[in-house]
Every structure is written in structure tokens, then in C-alpha cells.
């Protein structure tokens, strides 16, 4: 079960990296988000049935969890933005990039910091990450639809990182 969980987490990382490279939209983006979510759910179930990892499997758990959290969040955030645009009052008519630039890199760093904080046993690090991000983005949040994009992107990104960290914690025991 440990190997299955690690393979599924690695699949999440690979699909996330592909989705980030392609900037997948439409049906392909939805499919990549679904594969990412299903692989992570399968990894969580396998991790719950697996004994605690040690040695090389422990190192593999840390590495795959961090990479999967960082890269796997991209299709999830894009899916959340697509869903929000479908709502009649949530960002209708905005362009794909939105008012906040640099979001992909910031999201990647944010998810990495969140998962590392959790796996290191310092969940307070999440508050530090969110505070720094909020202060850095504060001047930009007055642009039309920027606050909605900030909230949707941040919540999706952090929730994704916490979910992947949960799979890692389940494997660690």
C-alpha cells in the first residue's frame, strides 16, 4: 500500500507539472484537475491502509509530497477559477490572466511553504505564509476582481497543499 500511495502522489506531481506547462483550459484542464484529485484521493486511501514509512520510503514521502503539493495545485486553482467564472456574479467577463500577475510562481512557492510547514510539524508556518502573501498583494487588491481572484486562488492553493500534506502525514504515521 505504501508503494501505491507514493506512485499516486508522484502521478499527482507529474500531472500537475504537465498542467502547469500547458496552462490547460477547457476540457483538458478539467480532465487534468480530475486526474489530480482522484490520484490524491487514491493516495490518501492507500496511505491510511499502509504502515508508517521508514528509511528511503520516508525520504520519498517527503519529496513526493512537496513536489505534488507544489505542482498539483496548478490544475486545481485553474479549475476553481473556471468554476467561479461560471457563476453569474463572480468575475464574469474577466480575462484568463486576471488582475494579479505572478500568481503561478507565488502559488507554487505558497504551496511548497505550506506543505513543508506541515510536514516539519510547524503548522503555524501557514499563518506566516498567508500574512506575507496578503501584505505583499495588498496594494493590488483594489483592482477590479483582484480580491476575488486572490481569495479563490489562495484558498484553493492552501487547501490543496494541506490535503497533500495529509497524505504525507498518513504515510509517516
In short:
By secondary structure, the chain is mainly α.
Written overview of the protein:
- The chain is an all-alpha fold and 173 residues long.
- The chain has one domain.
- Helices cover 77% and strands 0% of the residues.
- It is built from six helices and no strands.
- Helix 1 runs antiparallel to helix 2, helix 2 packs parallel to helix 6 and helix 4 runs antiparallel to helix 5.
- The protein is globular and about 50 Å long.
- It starts with a helix and ends with a helix.
- About 5% of the residues have low confidence.
From the N-terminal CA to the C-terminal CA, the straight-line distance is 13 Å
Q: Helical stretch count?
A: 6
Total strand count, please? 0
Structural class: mainly alpha
Poorly predicted regions: 89-96
Radius of gyration: 16 Å
Order of helices and strands: HHHHHH
Strand content: under 5%
Task: Describe the main β-sheet briefly.
Answer: none
Average pLDDT level? 88
Helix fraction? over 70%
Domain tally: 1
The gross shape turns out to be globular
Annotation keywords:
single chain; 173 residues; mainly alpha; globular
